[in-house]
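Task: sequence design from structure.
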């Protein structure tokens, strides 16, 4: 049996390895269009590779996917985070779990994952062809024909693992077979705020901020990082994932609303401010920071509220209290554009999941054609979820069921 795997990324390698585990007699070739394999694995997690997440409840795990939740809930029944951990550790890649539930190689080096894949693929005699572009694919009785350059090659099974395409045109060769394409747009991006003074506080992290987008239902919480271009961190990235289409339609122009003290509402914060006034009336507002806020951020709020440097808590008055409460719980910033990390580019969109059999990852449109990874309309939030989707769909596709 001749099997072609199109794409030498995370999902492609995982699928190819699984093919050889289930069908050791198969002749498997990975076709990679570039000169590099496993490029996203190499750079992800700052070069450490966030392999998966420690969440084991399948329903909760699936909720981390703005696109594909229902589909993956079924797929995770076959291969989930617990299986991923066992898979890597049993193959010589010990893992460690961070406090934020992200799981990395114990080596803290993505090369450990790459070396593991290359070693297994070599032992299994999986062939790898670099700088190879598949021009087209066509049905031929019970097989598929791939046009590679000027030549045509016949395969019994083909697994497409080409990753996310930034443009619809990159998926036209699959659309021509009759597959429905969901227009791709970026996911997991940061917010640009070119006209906001808060960018002067670059480097500050607020561990639990609540961020929403005005005039939408979009909301997310978690660490927020202030950057020299705007805002980043899990709170923003998660918001961008769930709001990928809405924000694309708005041309990435919106108003972000930030509650710097997380889930605490304005009434509770007002009570805390009033308590500080009662307990510390003569202390300078500039010198007494509530909620363990970083000093630079607190001084920024004082300036934003237009309090004098020598302002004491007892001098705030009702108007001053309301200003401060509003600043802490209902701060607003103009977003004008996004920044996407090209090396870790994630797309929302791809092959419609309606065209894919979740039990096998086989196309419902083209027999003997399988899909895995981001080429499908599946994407997750930050935290190891996108790799988990790659392992799960690659594992199932590789069984060639």
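Answer:
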């Amino acid at each position: 049996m001749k099997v072609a795997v199109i794409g030498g990324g995370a999902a492609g390698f995982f699928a190819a390895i699984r093919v050889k585990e289930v069908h050791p007699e198969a002749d498997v070739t990975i076709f990679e269009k570039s000169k590099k394999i496993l490029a996203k694995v190499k750079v992800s997690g700052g070069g450490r590779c966030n392999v998966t997440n420690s969440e084991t409840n399948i329903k909760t795990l699936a909720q981390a996917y703005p696109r594909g939740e229902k589909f993956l809930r079924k797929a995770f029944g076959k291969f989930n985070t617990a299986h991923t951990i066992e898979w890597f550790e049993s193959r010589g890649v010990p893992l460690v779990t961070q406090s934020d539930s992200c799981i990395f190689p114990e080596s803290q080096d993505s090369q450990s994952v790459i070396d593991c894949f290359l070693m297994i693929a070599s032992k299994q005699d999986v062939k790898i062809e670099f700088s190879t572009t598949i021009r087209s694919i066509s049905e031929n009785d019970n097989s598929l024909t791939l046009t590679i350059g000027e030549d045509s090659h016949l395969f019994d099974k083909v697994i497409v693992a080409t990753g996310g395409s930034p443009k619809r045109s990159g998926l036209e060769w699959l659309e021509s077979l009759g597959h429905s394409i969901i227009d791709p747009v970026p996911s997991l991006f940061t917010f640009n705020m070119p006209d906001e003074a808060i960018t002067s506080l670059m480097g500050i992290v607020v561990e639990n901020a609540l961020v929403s987008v005005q005039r939408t239902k979009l909301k997310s919480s978690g660490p927020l990082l202030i950057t020299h271009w705007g805002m980043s961190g899990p709170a923003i990235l998660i918001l961008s994932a769930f709001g990928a289409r809405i924000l694309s339609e708005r041309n990435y122009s919106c108003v972000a609303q930030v509650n710097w003290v997380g889930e605490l509402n304005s009434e509770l914060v007002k009570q805390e401010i009033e308590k500080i006034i009662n307990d510390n009336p003569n202390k300078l507002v500039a010198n007494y920071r509530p909620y363990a806020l970083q000093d630079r951020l607190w001084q920024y709020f004082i300036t934003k509220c237009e309090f004098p440097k020598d302002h004491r808590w007892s001098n705030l008055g009702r108007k001053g209290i309301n200003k401060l409460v509003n600043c802490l719980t209902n701060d607003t910033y103009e977003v004008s554009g996004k920044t996407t990390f090209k090396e870790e580019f994630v797309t929302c969109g791809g092959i419609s999941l309606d065209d894919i059999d979740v039990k096998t990852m086989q196309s419902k449109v083209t027999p003997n054609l399988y899909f895995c990874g981001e080429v499908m309309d599946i994407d997750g939030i930050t935290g190891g979820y996108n790799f988990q989707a790659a392992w799960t769909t690659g594992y199932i596709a590789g069984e060639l069921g």
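The longest helix spans residues 266-279.
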